[in-house]
Design goal:
The chain is of the alpha+beta class. The chain is built from nine helices and twelve strands. α6 runs antiparallel to α7. The two termini are about 20 Å apart. The strands form four sheets. The protein has a five-stranded mixed sheet, sandwiched between helices. The chain has a three-stranded antiparallel sheet with strand order 3-5-4, with helices on both faces. The relative contact order is 0.13. About 35% of the residues lie in helices and about 25% in strands. The chain is globular and about 55 Å long.
Length: about 300
């Protein structure tokens, strides 16, 4: 769930901690030699772009070198697309990456995960969730991985990318946002629209906090006036005198070329009916997450919360 402005002022810099093994010297690449000499002929192919990630049997792409200072790294087009997706969503469940980019096939996914992690470009962590203490494996970019993507100039339309783990208590929630995005993106594309970029609640908070901190010492009236100005600037709602921030904003272009966006909120078991009604008053579209346990693994499925559910 998105957190309030007063609860998370200390979180502004947590999206990019110094994590991961860092740079990999050429002489210390896994197996010896440079990373570019490892797996030069990649047996899996992905067509250019995020939306062409299917037909596992047709994938075949050589890895190309990326020089960074005195070091050499490499990735394939598929591995680069995986890193971009992880970076823009900040935290992702590894099951979603395997399902979306590899058609659920485990071996190529594991090979690429080891290759990227071995170079210090992304990181994996296991977290426990729920009363049953189920295990969930999540992936994030390392700070180095983010730097390499930024050097490649891959991100367009002002899309932000992130590196590093958030607090464990929030990692599971953040990793569940992707299923919510998939459901909404399917609806948008089904109407002939195309996704331009996504905006996480963290990006809103970073911008809003920076502005509100400047007026925090000038009294409640000035603070309230600046909140209203920011609400207009970022097209955000005010509820009970406070800015309401969604978990995710999806910006897209309609079938006729108009710019539009929709704000989404991911409700968890901690949401009370009153809290959900407050989010609907803000105009957010709510999704819930069904959690099913498979032994010690947690399965996650996003679904829209309908008006009937909210009325209960």
């Amino acid at each position: 769930m998105s957190r309030g402005l007063d609860d998370e002022r200390s979180e502004r810099e947590q999206h990019e901690p110094e994590t991961g093994p860092g740079r990999v010297p050429v002489s210390l690449a896994p197996g010896g030699g440079s990373p570019s000499s490892q797996g030069k002929s990649h047996p899996y192919r992905v067509e250019d772009g995020w939306d062409l990630r299917r037909d596992e049997s047709s994938r075949s792409r050589e890895r190309s070198d990326i020089r960074y200072g005195r070091h050499v790294y490499n990735w394939s087009e598929l591995e680069r697309a995986v890193m971009l997706e992880i970076g823009r969503f900040r935290t992702m469940d590894q099951d979603d990456i395997q399902r979306v980019f590899y058609g659920g096939v485990e071996r190529p996914f594991r090979d690429d995960l080891r290759h990227l992690a071995g170079q210090g470009l992304l990181e994996r962590r296991s977290i426990t969730v729920g009363k049953n203490r189920d295990i969930r494996h999540v992936l994030v970019l390392s700070k180095l991985g983010k730097k390499l993507l930024n050097r490649q100039g891959d991100m367009q339309n002002g899309q932000a990318i992130y590196a590093g783990f958030v607090k464990p208590s929030e990692a599971s929630h953040d990793a569940s946002i992707y299923r919510m995005y998939e459901a909404e993106a399917k609806e948008i594309e089904g109407r002939g629209g195309s996704i331009r970029r996504i905006v996480l609640d963290f990006e809103f908070k970073k911008k809003v906090y920076a502005e509100l901190n400047r007026v925090g010492d000038y009294g409640e009236v000035t603070y309230a006036r600046r909140q209203e100005e920011l609400a207009q600037l970022y097209d955000l709602p005010m509820v009970d005198g406070k800015l309401a921030l969604p978990d995710l904003r999806v910006e897209y272009e309609t079938a006729v070329g108009d710019r539009a966006h929709i704000d989404l909120e991911l409700a968890t078991e901690h949401y009370r009916p009153g809290h959900m009604r407050q989010k609907t008053r803000a105009g957010f579209k709510l999704y819930g997450v069904n959690t099913t346990s498979r032994g010690r693994r947690a399965g996650w499925e996003g679904r829209e919360i309908t008006a009937d559910v909210l009325a209960l």
